[in-house]
TrEMBL record:
The keyword Cytoplasm applies. Transmembrane segments: none annotated. It is found in: Cell projection, Kinocilium; Cytoplasm, Cytoskeleton, Flagellum axoneme. PANTHER family: MITOCHONDRIAL RIBOSOMAL PROTEIN S18, RADIAL SPOKE HEAD PROTEIN 9 HOMOLOG. Keywords: Cell projection, Cilium, Cilium biogenesis/degradation, Cytoplasm, Cytoskeleton, Flagellum. The gene is Rsph9. One of its GO terms (biological process) is cilium movement involved in cell motility. It comes from Anhinga rufa. Belongs to the flagellar radial spoke RSP9 family. This is Radial spoke head protein 9 homolog. One of its GO terms (cellular component) is kinocilium. It comes from the Eukaryota.
Amino acid sequence: SLNCVEWSLLPPATEEMVARAEQLKGRFQGDPSFEYECTEINAEDAERLFEDGKELMIKEESRLVATIEQIDRAVGIIPRGAFVKSPLGSVHENRNFEGLSLTEAKKLSSYFHFTEPVNLKNKTLLEKADLDPSTDFLDSLEHDIPSGNGS
């Protein structure tokens, strides 16, 4: 919104938006049309973008979209069992899920990152043997190491 009265949805983030936004530091300007120049880009990427007819600029609106996407990826979590994966691979909300027990709610292993799994793919067959493929198809928070906590 430019006037805090009329609001519109932001466009979805692309990987290119996220990659460009990661290069930028500092505060937002507060103007969605403000353009940042991507100065910290390697020569190969700069040449490719130039050949594709794309500028080495990113609008503040795109930076905001990319920042929101990065935050969502980092903090989106779900409790174990809230979503299920069918044998055909589709994921949907578990209508039978009634929440975690108090004991389970206190364990990090009862929560999953709500993003494409990375660590799960690296587990051995022995580690995967104890997992239920219908509920344990995402990366657990169990082995996460906090970063940027000021210590």
